[in-house]
Design brief:
Number of strands: 3
Structural class: mainly alpha
Strand order of the largest sheet: 1-3-2
Radius of gyration: 21 Å
Number of helices: 11
Length: 188
């Protein structure tokens, strides 16, 4: 609530100085970690459209916050057309974010989980908006492709422990030791 009041005060006064710059950076980083999109989305838009125009961000800061904006568009909003527009507008290039976006566009859960393991907490928090969707997609792929699989393989594929997977996704597969029976062959 205090961050919201600070953000509203900065907007109301029209400040674009160093204080507004630092306040918005702090607010965005904290609210991303809290996954409070109502706060960070508006703050990112204001930072890029108003503050950056009058008090330019450093190249690293611009890269960071445009990256967060792109991840929000891709992971939470699933608006890939806007992602490519923003990339072109800011001439944005980042290998990890490109891999995340491409994994979402192509439903590549292997790359998604691989990249997720290598990014920082802010990027991981933004990726959290689409984790359940990617997990469900991985489960559907496994269900269509395999009759049986190792429990560890299923846990790696979904990035979730077996017990939590059964509880949250209502997986009806049978566990026998370390082997999971996904489906049985139909008798002819």
């Amino acid at each position: 609530m205090a961050m919201r009041k600070l953000r509203e005060a900065v907007v109301a006064t029209g400040r674009t100085d160093d204080f507004a710059h630092k306040a918005y950076i702090f607010i965005i980083r904290q609210t991303i970690l809290l996954q409070h999109w109502e706060s960070y989305h508006a703050a990112i838009l204001y930072l890029l459209a108003k503050i950056h125009v009058r008090s330019p961000l450093s190249a690293m800061e611009l890269q960071e916050f445009v990256g967060y904006y792109i991840l929000d568009l891709a992971c939470r909003q699933r608006d890939f057309q806007a992602v490519y527009r923003v990339c072109r507008e800011y001439n944005f290039r980042d290998r990890k974010i490109d891999r995340i976006v491409n994994s979402l566009v192509h439903d590549d859960w292997v790359v998604f989980w691989s990249v997720r393991a290598k990014v920082d907490g802010h990027v991981r928090a933004l990726m959290g908006w689409t984790e359940d969707r990617m997990r469900l997609h991985a489960l559907k792929c496994l269900a269509r492709s395999y009759f049986t699989a190792e429990k560890e393989y299923i846990e790696r594929s979904t990035n979730m422990e077996w017990e939590a997977l059964v509880k949250s996704q209502q997986v009806g597969w049978e566990l026998d030791g370390n082997k999971v029976t996904i489906r049985r062959a139909k008798a002819r």
